């Protein structure tokens, strides 16, 4: 095998084709891998634009084996390893080409297409520089060909949409050189090691050996080995007295984190965790031969390790005020604040600030993080802000004042009191951050009442409760009908209010409260130990006015708990984060889907009229034409820009696969709700744990509730549903039930081994609302249905049954069909369940 380092452009140029063999898995990069790659690209772009020397970024290796050459054909290479990187970069170039087209740069379009994506003078499959596995081929070629269905629901489509959005946002924010610089970086500053096998090599054996390696050394392991190689005389004593105690107290993950943080607080704000060893080695190599200096470096690291322990285990901190705020940040979770917190503890221990001053500084950090979450400020660049803080704080003023001034910087987006009030009134807080962070904010608001007998939150099993229920009964909608605006339905008003902070509280009686009328909820909340629940129980009704009044009261408490930036006023001319989120939502929509102005308004905490006005003023935004009226029609006010040669919006949507009826209404099954948009954006919007199945075996009381509810609401489907569940049990599965008032049902299968469970379920059945959810959202993380083709096969088998019409664009969501389908097609549904069990069993046999 031969190896050489090469740029991406040089790798792909020429009449050649990279074929991904069938034994390779399908394309699997998700949002996190794409974000990491784009952050690396962004750093190179920034360096290049600022005139800094820009070294190529090492992307990894690609292992190739020569394929057959036909007369007059292209040189074929089998991609033994590295297909994920190759496919990702090709999709990035397809997105770049289409971005250049949207800006009118036809020469750029032609250049990228010919240089990178295709073999210009070849036809058929030879036309493509990259030929993925057959499962990914159609989605990939749709992107290369710029077909209407490009950007579908699978991973290939999602990656293409990610890069389209990234180019659009970067173009908006950057100068005129930005796009050209990105192209330069992608072509010439991403370094790949090309490893080429010789003819006759056993390609599959090479693939196996690459993908069956043992556990590699961590970055901290490599650093330790390097340091002690330079300590031939003092090594054993330094290891026993300094390194080993540090390693044992921190554990491997925190030790690696410490070594990275050590670089950050020393001023290397761009250090990557994947390059700790190289950066530390570069810093220490000048000390080779001076064992005393090296020992001092280890002593300094061990001392910083003890400070770091006070961050991850706040009980070790001796100052009460500092310990309290460290405990709050630990409860908040995440590692974003670590660089600044460690720097502040360095200052405290060096006598350069007081514990109380450091505590006040960290209170500003807490406020900054909480306000951004409530206001749903994009997290892009948040880690970078905290990595730059240690070296950018002003040193001629108290630490707390310096931190507040730093975080108040214009580009650091610390929401003002006005923005906080608006967000608490209108943003869907229930979709903000992670569940523990939402609970933390509600807990702090409860503590602000300063009750004489505070609740022990560590012991109380509390969860977030919607006072106005997520699934309201008719009585709730009748109440809301009194407060609707002109042309607004009670359901639309409900959707705008239900997830806002004013409608949320903490309770240990979530399953009891459910979607009962407010009078029944009052009775339960009156016995609560939480002051904010007693306050809710004092209301005579619970509608829009009460929710907004409570939002006002909670805002006053939030402003007191979490102070704002210096000045406290939103900068003039700064765009609302809601519009940023709107654009991101349009980008993540797969082709073949649509949504409404109301759904987008619910997602971003706005109003349908404001959303319509924004899109009417910006019709060229990616996906703007996919936002329709609540009836599924093109809004009369939506127009392409003057002089545009694009198809009429309805024709364009139809070419993507949207079905319209004779009245011009889009098919409702292809509509994305606000919750589905939030899911595609990566927000945590899964249903409450109590509604999802737990591996506890069958509950006879819950089973009886399910049967009773099904018989009462859907009598025609009752017998067929129970027959299908009995069939499931005979196939080796079991049935579990939710714990809310509507007792949902889940046919469970454990496709694991005696040592390791592998739980999955194909559907959730809801006996009151009468829906059957197909849980692709969960299956996509469970083998074998983590393969898009297997989920597509499940969808296709279900869609052959009359009455079921699941859109392919929802292969990562939870589309549903009516439970009444069981009444006439129970046997066909059992056939699909049988296939599901067989597929899972075959996968288990292959894994074993």
Question: What does this protein structure show overall?
Answer:
The chain is built from 35 helices and 16 strands. A hairpin with an 8-residue loop joins strand 12 and strand 13. The protein is globular. The two termini are 32 Å apart. The strands form 5 sheets. It has a 6-stranded mixed sheet with strand order 1-6-3-4-2-5, sandwiched between helices. A 3-stranded antiparallel sheet has the order 11-12-13. The protein is of the alpha/beta class and 848 residues long.
Quickly list its features:
848 residues, alpha/beta, six-stranded mixed β-sheet, three-stranded antiparallel β-sheet, 35 helices, 16 strands
Compile the SSE list and pairings.
Elements: E1 2-7, H1 8-12, E2 16-19, H2 31-49, E3 57-66, E4 75-81, H3 83-102, H4 106-117, E5 130-131, H5 134-144, H6 155-173, H7 178-188, E6 190-196, H8 203-210, H9 219-229, H10 235-265, H11 276-284, H12 291-312, H13 320-332, H14 338-349, H15 355-374, H16 382-392, H17 399-407, H18 417-426, H19 435-447, E7 463-466, H20 474-481, H21 490-497, E8 504-507, H22 510-513, H23 518-525, H24 531-537, H25 544-561, H26 577-588, E9 595-596, H27 597-604, H28 608-617, E10 627-628, H29 649-656, H30 674-680, H31 700-713, H32 715-730, E11 734-737, E12 745-750, E13 759-760, E14 763-766, E15 771-774, H33 776-779, H34 788-799, E16 816-818, H35 821-847
Parallel strand pairs: 2-4, 2-5, 3-6, 9-10
Antiparallel strand pairs: 1-6, 3-4, 7-8, 11-12, 12-13, 14-15, 15-16
Helix pairs in contact: 2-7, 3-4, 3-6, 6-26, 9-10, 9-11, 10-12, 12-14, 13-15, 14-15, 14-16, 15-17, 18-25, 20-21, 21-27, 23-24, 27-28, 27-30, 31-32, 32-35
Domain GmrSD restriction endonucleases C-terminal: 414-555
Keywords: DNA damage
Domain Methylated-DNA-[protein]-cysteine S-methyltransferase DNA binding: 585-657
């Amino acid at each position: 095998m031969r190896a050489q380092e090469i740029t991406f452009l040089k790798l792909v140029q020429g009449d050649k084709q990279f074929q991904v063999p069938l034994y390779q898995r399908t394309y699997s990069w998700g949002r996190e891998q794409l974000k990491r790659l784009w952050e690396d690209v962004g750093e190179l772009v920034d360096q290049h634009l600022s005139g800094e020397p820009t070294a190529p970024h090492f992307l990894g290796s690609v292992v190739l084996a020569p394929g057959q050459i036909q007369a007059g054909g292209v040189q074929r290479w089998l991609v033994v390893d590295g297909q994920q990187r190759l496919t990702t970069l090709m999709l990035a170039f397809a997105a770049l080409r289409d971005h250049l087209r949207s800006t009118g740069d036809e020469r750029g379009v032609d250049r990228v297409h010919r240089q990178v994506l295709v073999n210009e003078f070849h036809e058929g499959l030879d036309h493509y520089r990259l030929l993925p596995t057959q499962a990914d081929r159609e989605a990939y070629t749709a992107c290369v060909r710029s077909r209407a269905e490009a950007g579908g629901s699978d991973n290939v489509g999602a990656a293409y949409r990610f890069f389209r959005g990234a180019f659009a946002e970067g173009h908006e924010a950057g100068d005129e050189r930005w796009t050209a610089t990105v192209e330069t970086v992608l072509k010439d500053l991403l370094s790949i090691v090309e490893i080429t096998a010789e003819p006759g090599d056993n390609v599959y054996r090479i693939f196996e050996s690459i993908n069956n390696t043992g556990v590699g050394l961590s970055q901290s392991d490599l650093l330790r080995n390097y340091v002690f190689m330079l300590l031939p005389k003092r090594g054993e004593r330094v290891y026993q007295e300094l390194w080993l105690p540090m390693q044992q107290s921190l554990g491997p993950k925190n030790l690696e984190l410490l070594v990275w943080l050590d670089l950050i607080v020393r001023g290397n704000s761009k250090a990557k965790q994947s390059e700790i060893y190289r950066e530390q080695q570069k810093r220490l190599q000048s000390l080779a031969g001076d064992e005393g200096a090296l020992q001092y470096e280890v002593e300094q690291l061990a001392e910083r390790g003890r400070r770091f322990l006070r961050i991850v285990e706040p009980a070790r901190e001796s100052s009460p005020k500092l310990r309290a705020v460290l405990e709050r940040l630990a409860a908040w979770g995440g590692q974003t604040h670590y660089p600044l917190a460690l720097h502040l503890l360095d200052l405290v221990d060096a006598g350069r600030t007081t514990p109380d001053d450091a505590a006040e500084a960290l209170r500003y950090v807490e406020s900054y993080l909480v306000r951004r979450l409530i206001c749903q400020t994009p997290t892009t660049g948040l880690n970078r802000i905290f990595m730059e803080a240690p070296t950018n704080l002003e040193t001629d003023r108290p630490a707390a004042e310096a931190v507040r001034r730093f975080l108040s910087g214009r580009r650091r987006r610390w929401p003002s009191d006005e923005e906080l009030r608006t967000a608490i009134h209108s943003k869907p807080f229930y979709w903000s951050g992670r569940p523990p962070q939402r609970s933390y904010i509600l807990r702090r608001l409860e503590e602000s009442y300063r009750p004489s007998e505070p609740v022990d939150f560590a012991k109380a099993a509390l969860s977030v409760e919607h006072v106005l229920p997520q699934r309201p009964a008719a009585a709730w909608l009748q109440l809301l009908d009194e407060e609707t605006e002109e042309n607004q339905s009670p359901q639309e008003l409900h959707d705008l209010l239900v997830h806002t902070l004013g409608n949320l509280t903490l309770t240990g009686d979530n399953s009891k409260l459910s979607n009962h009328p407010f009078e029944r909820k009052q009775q339960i909340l009156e016995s609560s130990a939480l002051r904010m629940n007693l306050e809710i129980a004092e209301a005579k009704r619970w509608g829009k006015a009460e929710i907004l009044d409570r939002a006002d009261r909670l805002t006053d408490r939030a402003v007191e708990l979490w102070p704002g930036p210096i000045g406290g006023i939103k900068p003039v001319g700064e765009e609302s984060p809601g519009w940023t989120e709107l654009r991101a939502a349009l980008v993540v929509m797969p082709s073949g889907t649509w949504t409404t102005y109301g759904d987008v308004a619910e997602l971003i905490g706005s109003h349908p009229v404001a959303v319509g006005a924004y899109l009417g003023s910006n019709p060229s935004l990616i996906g703007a034409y996919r936002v329709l009226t609540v009836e599924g029609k093109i809004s009369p006010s939506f127009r392409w820009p003057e002089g545009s040669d694009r198809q009429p919006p309805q024709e364009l949507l139809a070419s993507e696969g949207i079905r319209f009826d004779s009245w011009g209404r889009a098919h409702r099954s292809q509509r994305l709700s606000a919750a589905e948009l939030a899911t595609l954006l990566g927000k945590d919007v899964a249903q409450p744990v109590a509604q999802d199945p737990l591996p506890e075996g069958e509950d006879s009381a819950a089973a009886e509730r399910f049967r009773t509810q099904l018989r009462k609401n859907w009598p025609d489907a009752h017998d067929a549903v129970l027959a299908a569940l009995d069939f499931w049990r005979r196939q080796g599965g079991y049935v579990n039930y939710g714990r809310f008032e509507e007792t949902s049902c889940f046919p469970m299968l454990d496709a694991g081994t005696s040592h390791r469970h592998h739980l999955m379920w194909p559907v959730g059945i809801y006996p009151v609302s009468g829906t059957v959810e197909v849980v692709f959202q969960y299956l996509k993380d469970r083998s074998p249905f983590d393969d898009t083709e297997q989920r597509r096969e499940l969808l296709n088998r279900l869609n052959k049954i009359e009455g079921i019409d699941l859109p392919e664009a929802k292969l990562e969501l939870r589309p549903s069909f009516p439970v009444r389908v069981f009444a006439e097609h129970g046997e066909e549904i059992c056939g699909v369940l049988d296939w599901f069990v067989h597929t899972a069993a075959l996968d288990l046999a292959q894994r074993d």
